[in-house]
Amino acid sequence: MTAAIQIDASVGPTLDTVSPSSGAASGGTGVTLTGSGFTGATGVTFGGAAATSVNVVSSTSVTAVTPAHATGAVDVVITTPSGTGTKTDGYTYATTAVGQSAYGGTIACLNGSLNNLIAATADNSTGIEWGGFGTNTNATSTTDGATNTEVIVTALGANGGTPYAAQLCSNYAIDSQGNTPCESGNTCYNDWFLPAGNNTTSTGQLNCLYTNRTAIGGFTGQEYWSSTEENQDVAHLQTFGGPGSGSQAAAPKSVDVIRVRCVRSFTP
Question: What is the pLDDT of residue 3?
Fold first, then answer.
């Protein structure tokens, strides 16, 4: 009599692709892993470092956010209850640079301190007022748009129902897979602000966007609001093209044809 042979039919996951296959060494890139056997996935690593926001979309798709890592090609490993799947040299870390996609937008500034910035991938408004004409908000910082934005929103509130630039950035949210509003399971980036202006040095936030406008992408040659107030009636802006390209000026807060590009801080 021949004894029955019992075969363990469980098969570990197979990792076929990682998209995108490269990103900034500072991490923060939303990626999609495709393959098979991903049900119940408990973790993803890049060169041994754990990814965040690992979200099992289906048995063949998982999304995640890359961790920071030294530059170079690394193995990507997905872990499930049935084992692990590896994509050898499946992801390449590049030196962090302006223009790379990360942390909900595009790396825009790498000048240190308050000027390490992510910019939204496109203008958040093609024309909106600064708001609060006749109101002194005390948003006067030329280096700290986050504080300015908070001060403006506190001072203006709903602004009588009229949308305004700082409110727009304060309310903006996008997740690690590019969804807005944010979807469950993904990292939600909701700490955006209107960049500070009236500053043409390396600490100027709006000026940094202007300087790096080509690498960041999506800007027009028109004017963009800053969060820096001049007085109760006017606020600062910067021109991104044309005869006055790079110039900074002040305009009445009620002007509603000025563009906005929101930013957020990050650690490179």
Answer: 52
